[in-house]
Amino acid sequence: MKKYLLSLAALTLIAIPQVFAVPLIKGDVAAYRVRELSTGMDWYTSLPQALQEGARTGKLVVWIHMLGKIDGAT
Questions:
Q1: Nearest-CA neighbor of 27 among 72, 62, 74, 63?
Q2: At a CB cut-off of 8 Å and minimum separation 6, what does 74 contact?
Q3: Cα 44 versus chain centre, distance
Q4: Who wins on pLDDT, 20 or 52?
Q5: What is the mean pLDDT of residues 61-72?
Q6: Distances (CA, A) of 52 to 22, 29, 39, 59, 61
Q7: How far apart are the first and last CA of the chain?
Q8: How is residue 24 annotated by DSSP?
Q9: What stretches of the chain show up as alpha helix (H) in DSSP?
């Protein structure tokens, strides 16, 4: 019985992550999404400048602060 429960626990640990795994997108799909995002918005490298422009135009400012490398190899 103990061996059966141990086998069942091991199988559960192997099977459950695969059930909930998020599928990866293909490179061309990722490139398209990045292109759409980066051309559809005005980007600023200075937060104060972006806040000033947002105040002038009445638009919201979205601030994204990233740590690590942008290519995903953090």
A1: 72
A2: 67, 68
A3: 20
A4: 52
A5: 76
A6: 39, 34, 21, 10, 10
A7: 44
A8: P
A9: 2-19, 27-39, 47-57
Q: Are 61 and 50 in contact (CB under 8 A)?
A: yes
- For the record, the structure tokens of 5 come out as 């429960």
Lowest average pLDDT, out of 1-5, 53-57, 63-67, goes to 1-5
Residue 12 near residue 6 (C-beta atoms within 8 A): no
Q: Is residue 66 part of a domain?
A: no
Is residue 10, in this structure, part of any structural domain at all? no
Residue range of the domain that includes 42: 22-61
Q: Assess if residue 71 is contained within a domain.
A: no
| Number of folded domains that form the chain | 1
| Residue 53 pLDDT > 80 | yes
